[in-house]
């Protein structure tokens, strides 16, 4: 897990006898700075614990039954830097729940029952870097929910109930590097949904319900290096769908319903090194579109219903001479016409392929 290395720097010592700690929890300190780690993991808690050490910097509250985060929940622990509340039963978060927690860097709310984020509820978390909200029931995102989070670098929202990404949803998150929206029900994305995310490097939209993506949707993502669109219902990509992704290095479009790719659909992606198009409905692809990708190292084309007539030869010939790593030619087989069904690309010869009349 990408947060573990950050947490592994903690070294623990025996707690002084006078050290304040909830009876049900276990506390220890880092002697050099007298910073306290409070471990209340899986202790049957129903409410957020009180009587916490004032110097608490790591708070472990995972797998309890906490249902509400009330106003000023963190008022007595202003130095806290990491809070783990995963797999509780949190339903409501007061807009002032995190008031004053200006040193908090990691907040884990994965696996709770949150349906709505409070307006401006994170505005005091000026140093928050990681926010995990996966496996909740959040159905709507609005810009005011992320107000003040100018240093957030990683936002995880998989396994929620999102259906629409509206304009300017993430605009306050000017430092965001990683955005995970996988395993939701997203059907529609506003062309301005990603406005402001100029630092974003990784965007995951895997396992949603996207059928189309408006032109220019990704244009604000000038730094994006990896885009995952696997397991959606995309049937087409226009020449302008991927506009603006000039720094993209990895693009995953597996298991969609793509039937056609415009010859210039990847024309502005000179840095693309990995492209996955397997599991679609492609019958024909112009091999010349890949010839303009000097950095392409890996290409996945298997599990498509290839139609092997003379128009497939540009792809077959490109495969012959390219140094790109891709699935074995034996996995690329013709689905039609009938007399070539099951034939591998490696057995195709130009003179044997008919041209459409």
UniProtKB/TrEMBL annotation:
GO annotation, cellular component aspect = plasma membrane
**Protein name according to UniProt:** Si:dkey-1j5.4
Q: Which domain of life is it from?
A: Eukaryota
Species this chain originates from: Takifugu rubripes
Say if the entry is tagged with keyword Cell cycle. Answer: no
| Domain spans labelled LRRNT | 20-58
In this chain the LRRCT domain maps to 304-356
- A Pfam family reported for this protein in Swiss-Prot or TrEMBL: LRR_8
Signal sequence annotation: 1-20
UniProt keywords, alphabetically:
Glycoprotein, Leucine-rich repeat, Repeat, Signal
